[in-house]
């Protein structure tokens, strides 16, 4: 509904000064996965200022929540944002930078930062919610505003579903599930594609065992540091030697915890490994190779005990529905003009957003919007230095607030109105 979208945004758009302040609040007060209590409470309090007509359910699978806005007959649209932050110490130098530390879900004290932009996601969805509430005379249908916990653990969506999101909590079954993510592209741009847009992800915790002893007598020990080092180096050959060129695959060792003194050879080492892939066949090959390499290196090092491998998380490829993407692309092209790129390359990061749609067998669409300062982006681009842009999960990641927030808000509003009916209509004209 391009004409409706234009009227809604022109006449009912939010006060971005207010949302700039709200964004800074979320950024300065991040919370780790499973612990997003204050963020969730702020979301509910903010939504309540828009209308008394919201139907709330909170505490779903932890801190997850949704608010339903019913506005006559039509399709049911779910708009989703994630709320959690990362155990990263912020180094942006912003006057609203996080200095927060908090105990994680295991009781360990960590620095906390919104290093992945979830604060922008939450703020944009709240601004979109106010816009859609204000413009109710112009559209018809049901909107579910869902705020999810623990996306960084790749487990928050599954936890909400397992806790009864669509059963016990009676969330309306959506006809369409929509979501977005701020990335390192130029602020003001929006991009996506049909088919796979984000990779499948798997996380493993691998514990290998040695025989501890004095650092001066390594011949009396089995050194798990050396064992872990061999595993790490050998894992790097999986993509280069076992996955065909052209197939997207990534294997990353993100953490190694072993030892605590220079003169002690400890008895075990723990590695945390993440993989990314698109093709299920090669996803399986990667997993088998990891297990084979770990087993072989343990045998080569004369490890006294078989390694323990725990799957920490697993989520499938985010695979946009072709028909939804076509409809969304038409709307985005009319609104964002040349700032919309419908043929973006696949993003090698991963999401559990798709779990919400897959749980009820419904189609979904996920897109991206840039957060990098346009002036700096153009300067770096001219110099061929775009690889120097701080990416998500970096301690330097800091989306410029505008036009990033405006773009994210407008994208959600335009997307929702693409699938909602016009006022007085029974359903959207788009064939879902």
Structure at a glance:
This protein has helices spanning 2-12, 16-28, 37-48, 118-134, 156-162, 224-235, 237-242, 280-300, 322-336, 354-358, 374-383, 401-419, and strands spanning 55-60, 64-71, 76-82, 101-103, 109-111, 139-148, 176-186, 190-191, 195-198, 200-209, 213-214, 249-257, 264-265, 268-277, 308-315, 318-320, 340-341, 364-372, 421-422.
Spans where pLDDT lies below 50 across 5 or more residues: 425-431
Q: Report helical residue fraction.
A: 25-40%
- Radius of gyration over alpha carbons? 23 Å
Shape: elongated
Give the total of domains.
Answer: 2
Strand percentage lies at 25-35%
CATH architectural group of the largest domain: 3-Layer(aba) Sandwich
- Just give the CATH class of the largest domain: Alpha Beta
Give the structural class. alpha+beta
Largest sheet: 9 strands, mixed
Number of distinct beta strands: 19
**CATH level-3 fold name of the largest domain:** Aminopeptidase
Distance between the termini: 14 Å
Number of helices: 12
According to CATH, the homologous superfamily of the largest domain is: Zn peptidases
